[in-house]
Amino acid sequence: MTYFLLVALGFAVGTFGTLIGAGGGFILMPILLLSYPQRSADELTAISLAMICCNATSGSISYARMKRIDYTSGVLFLMAGIPGAVLGAMTVAYIPRQAFNLVFGLVLIAGSLFIFFRPPRESGSSMSTHGGTRFRRTLIDAQGTRHEFAYNLPVGIVLSLFVGFASSLLGIGGGIIHVPAMVHLLDFPVHLATATSHFVLAAMTLAGTIVHLVDGSLRAGLAIAGCLAVGAVAGAQLGARLSHRIHGRWILRALAVALALVGMRILIAAVR
C-alpha cells in the first residue's frame, strides 16, 4: 500500500472512528490483516495502536472544546485501563496469527449483536437508582445542554480493565466495547460516552504503543504508522465536528453495522 493511500486510509478511519468514539481500530485492523498477511499479529497491533493514539488525542482536543468529556470518570477509568493495556500489549506476541483472526472476528460480531439487541436509552439525563450506590455526574456542554446521569463506579472500573486489555491485545483501541458498554451498562448519554471514551482511549493506546516501542514490535511498521497517523489526526477533527449533528442512536447503529461487516470478513479469512 502506497504512502498516499495510507494517509487517505488514516483520514477515513480517523473521521469515522472519532464520530462514534471508537478510535477506528476495528476498521483499520481488518484492513491491515488483509493487506499485510506476512506480518505478525503483534506488528499489526502495534501499527494500529500508534495510529489510534494519534487519532484519539486529536479527537479529544475537539471534544474538550465542546465540553463533552467527563474528566473525573475518565481518570478513574484509566486507573484500571492503563494496566490492562500494558498487559494486553505484552500478551499479543504469544498468540498465533490464525487464532488472533478468529478471536478478533468473534469479538466484533459479539459487539454488533449486543448493540442491535440492546437499543440505547433515549435520554439527555439519566439518574436511575438501580444497581446499588451510584456515582452521580452533572456536565454542561459548550452548547449549554445539561447532562445528569449516574452509574455504578466499580462496574465502570472493572469494565475499563477489560477494555484496556482487549484494546491492546486486538489493536482496536477498545472504543467499540467501551462506548456501547458506557451507554448500556453505565447510563452515559451517548455523546458524552463517545467523547469520554475517546479521552480514555488516547491514554490507554499511548500505554500500549510505548510497550510496543520498547519491545521493538513497532519498529518495522513505523513508516506505515506515521502515514496513517497523519491522516487520522486530520480526520479526527472532521469526525468530532460531525458528531454533534448526528443523533446518538444513529451513531450506535453505524457502529453496529460496521462491527458486523468487518467481523464476518475476518472470520471468513480465519477459517479458510
How would you portray this structure in words?
- There is one protein chain.
- The protein has one domain (3-99, 120-248).
- Helix content is 72%, strand content 5%.
- The chain contains ten helices and three strands.
- The chain has helices spanning 3-20, 25-35, 41-65, 71-91, 97-117, 153-170, 175-184, 190-215, 222-243, 248-271; strands at residues 125-126, 135-140, 146-151.
Provide the number of structural domains: 1
Helix residue percentage: over 70%
* Number of continuous helical runs: 10
Give, in spatial order, the strands making up the sheet with the most strands: 1-3-2
Largest sheet features: 3 strands, mixed
Low-confidence stretches: 122-131
Report how far apart the termini are. Answer: 23 Å
**What's the mean pLDDT score?**
82
Give the SSE string.
HHHHHEEEHHHHH
Strand segment count: 3
- Helix-and-strand structural type: mainly alpha
